[in-house]
Design a protein that fits this description.
With 330 residues, this protein is α/β, with parallel strands linked by helices. The chain has twelve helices and 14 strands.
């Protein structure tokens, strides 16, 4: 029996989240709605200019692991922090949520990664990430027993930015498939897709990746089309299973010629879209590893995403298992 439901692999990043307006983004050259990679100097500059902020352990795959644990799933996370103050905060936070995290911290520099997230009044988030120690994640950090002993190994597309992480992901996928497990990825960001389109398609077409998560912008970027329907039709032949989120329009699950439409849950107020895709993946993968129908998987994903966008920050404040039980999904 697998020891874990999902092993999530990603950049271990401390999120620093602040409210801002459109003029702040323009004045500071921040691309709205994107994840902008920045160096240490710009990280210090933006930190000095941002208003009151909330700090929390984050990172895309880490958020997904936290969501799976909140549903009651067995989640593990692999990602690199430094042996410093922020690294200690990150490790404590994710373990306190019930996620297994055993990646050895980096001694010395660079410091633990951090992401400054500016949330505009429309709920859109613009991320500015200093990758720091997270870029040191490599093949030596792949825990064979976790990769082989998890029902699904899930990784974020953002990992394609640090070069040695690519080797680590391919090794984790090899171990997972050798043990009869599955591999999933999220495309992460349309700009990330633009950087690595050919490599992402190769991962899918070669069978290295079995399941793909994307939002509509990312999927259209992958196939370089303005038509979502065209992109959905294209991914049918490239990947065994895909889940595509479309904000308030819900999501679409694609398996071969089969298409399942899932409604978004009603919300009271859109506060912050940070973590919406990560939590959708959490709900979906929790249901998937429990043997639930694809429709149920989509509904669990929709529930988790809908709850997290009504708060500041990417980690669910509610117990997602209780929320799912109250919604009649468990």
């Amino acid at each position: 029996m697998p020891e874990y439901d999902v092993l999530c692999i990603g950049n271990a990043i401390v999120d620093i989240i602040a409210q801002s307006d459109e003029s702040f983004l323009a004045e500071n050259g921040i691309i709205k709605g994107a994840m902008n990679l920045i160096d240490a100097e710009r990280a210090e500059l933006l930190y000095a200019r941002m208003g009151p902020a909330v700090e929390a352990s984050g990172g895309s795959a880490g958020n997904t692991a936290a969501g799976i644990a909140s549903f009651g799933g067995r989640a593990a996370f692999a990602g690199k922090v430094a042996d410093d103050h922020l690294g200690g905060i990150y490790a404590h936070d994710i373990r306190a949520l019930g996620v297994a995290f055993d990646t050895r911290p980096l001694a010395g520099t660079p410091p633990t990664a951090r992401c400054m997230i500016f949330v505009t009044p429309d709920g859109e988030r613009s991320m500015n990430t200093y990758l720091g120690a997270s870029i040191e994640f490599g093949p030596q950090d792949v825990e064979a027993e976790k990769a082989s002993g998890s029902k699904v190994v899930y990784f974020e597309g953002y990992l394609w930015d640090p070069p040695r992480a690519k080797e680590a992901i391919r090794e984790a996928a090899r171990l997972a498939h050798a043990a009869g497990r599955e591999v999933a990825m999220t495309l992460s960001d349309s700009f990330c897709v633009d950087r690595y389109r050919d490599e992402f398609l190769e991962l899918m077409r070669s069978g290295t990746v079995d399941i793909v998560f994307a939002n509509d912008h990312e999927l259209r970027a992958l196939y370089q089309t303005a038509s979502l329907e065209t992109a959905i039709q294209a991914i049918r032949g490239d990947c065994r299973l895909a889940a595509v989120t479309c904000s308030e329009k819900g999501s679409t699950i694609i398996e071969g010629e089969r298409t399942i439409s899932i409604d978004a849950i009603p919300i009271d107020e859109l506060v912050d879209t940070t973590g919406a895709g990560d939590l959708y993946a959490a709900g979906f993968l929790f249901g998937y590893t429990q043997g639930r129908s694809l429709e149920d998987c989509g509904k669990l994903g929709s529930l988790a995403a809908g709850l997290v966008i009504q708060q500041i920050g990417p980690r669910p404040r509610q117990n997602l298992r209780i929320e799912a039980e109250q919604a009649g999904l468990l």
